[in-house]
Amino acid sequence: MKALLQACWIAASAAMLMAQEAPKNAGEPKLNDGGDYVHRGTGVTFPVKVPGFVRTDVHQFDAAGNDVSASYSVNGFVVTVYSYPVPAPLRNAREVFADAQASIRRANSTARLIREEPARGDGSFRAEYEMMMTRRDSPAHLVRSRLVLFSKDGWLLKYRATYPADAREDGEKQLDAIIRAIGTEALRGGRPGRGVGNGL
């Protein structure tokens, strides 16, 4: 029971952390409507179910439906996947990655960078943070938060994962499973790019 309560607490805290980083004009969630959600601009699909996970919500952050996220959770592990274009005034994926890391630090003053990987050949940027999460009615818990960003022709596919620090290995496996299921291509199906550099 204690483990279950801790898992629920971390899931709720992770959702709060990611909400702090979301755009202020966030739209109403398109809660699970019984089908997979396909991003109209990129072709990225957010399935209702990923092996071991259930999609908890889909958010549309702009009227055109270009800026969209979907969240998945299981047993204290939370991952939110974002599909959106490089936002002005940022110019490329490298700047978006730096801005995303700054958002993590702004949202939690205890965030400490554990590792950051240089840009990979697949066009991805990766970083991992460790931080304390606190709630008024519960003791603080140490968590890990991972950021993975893929880009192609001005479009971005970002993964944010949060899980208990003492379950790091399992957390990494869970994130890898989500990435395998949803993919690494930020733009698919011959859709046109937006003419913005990837910054690789």
Architecture overview:
The protein is an alpha+beta fold. The protein has one domain (2-182): Protein Transport Mog1p, Chain A (3-Layer(aba) Sandwich). It has helices at 2-21, 93-107, 168-182, and strands at residues 37-38, 45-46, 49-50, 53-60, 68-74, 77-85, 112-117, 124-135, 138-152, 155-164. The strands form two sheets. An eight-stranded antiparallel β-sheet has the order 3-4-5-6-10-9-8-7, with helices on both faces. The longest helix is centred in the first third of the chain and has 20 residues, at 2-21. The chain is globular, with a radius of gyration of 16 Å. Mean pLDDT is 83; it is low at 1-20.
Number-wise, the strands total 10
Instruction: Catalogue the unreliable spans.
Output: 1-20
Give me the strand/helix succession: HEEEEEEHEEEEH
**N/C terminus separation:** 47 Å
How many structural domains are formed by the residues? 1
Shape: globular
Q: Which CATH class?
A: Alpha Beta
Mean pLDDT across the residues is 83
Query: What is the CATH topology assignment?
Result: Protein Transport Mog1p, Chain A
| Structural class based on helices, strands and sheet pairing | alpha+beta
Amount of helix: 25-40%
